[in-house]
Amino acid sequence: MDHFAQVFTNLQQPAYLAGAVLFVAFFATLYYFFFKFLKTSGATAFIKISVPLLIGFGLALLFTGGEVNKLFLLLPLALVLFAATVYSVEFKSAIWRRSNLKMSGSKYAVKNYSEVEVGNCIDEIIRALQNMSKNDIGAIIVLSSNNVPERILESGVEINSDITSQLIESIFFPKTPLHDGAMIINGTKITAAGCFLPLSQKENLPKELGTRHRAAIGITETIDVTTLIVSEETGIISVAKGGNITRYADSELLRKTLSKFYWQDAR
Q1: What residue numbers bound the domain in which 63 lies?
Q2: What is the DSSP letter of 246?
Q3: Is the domain of 167 the same as that of 248?
């Protein structure tokens, strides 16, 4: 309490008050541009900037004389911690990406495939999605390019089978052992099924989107994949990419999405 009393006493001095105002204005301007930069550059920039700032302010607190000066140095430290709280989801996503996306040499590597193979895969996936939609069977299909972390693959059951609508529908058929998890498609193969995905932490998602949709969106927030979702309650087909979801996907959108996935990956 003595420290705060000393601060208020000093603030009554014009010179000290002017210095305090300049100090606050300086850091307010600094953090305005800091947050503006984070908005366009993402969580990786946050990590690169906030860690040196924390170290710098920590050293300043250690070597700065005077209790009043130390109290003022706590302000930028508090602002950095506030930034960490605001960007907590992005911060976790950046750590997830950096620690899990070193997948070269995996046994699930994508191989080159022909137009006939791709056409068959697209037709089979769309057929399965539409059939499940008509029967209100819930499903999550992750379209990956050899970039799904091993921990997610190992949370399910290895399939490593050709893509057929019958197999997809049988896996997601209600009350079967794997129907609640996600299916991972890697190239022209069904790699695994029954996999657990990280849930999205977004708070502004529509209330009608349940756990299945949150999982489908969450994986696209941390990894560059596309997910296809069928709602068990409504039969609505959705597409999630980059943390965003598009609902009421028709056959045209599904074919466009799948074509982009295959040809972007293969070429």
Answers
A1: 2-100
A2: E
A3: yes
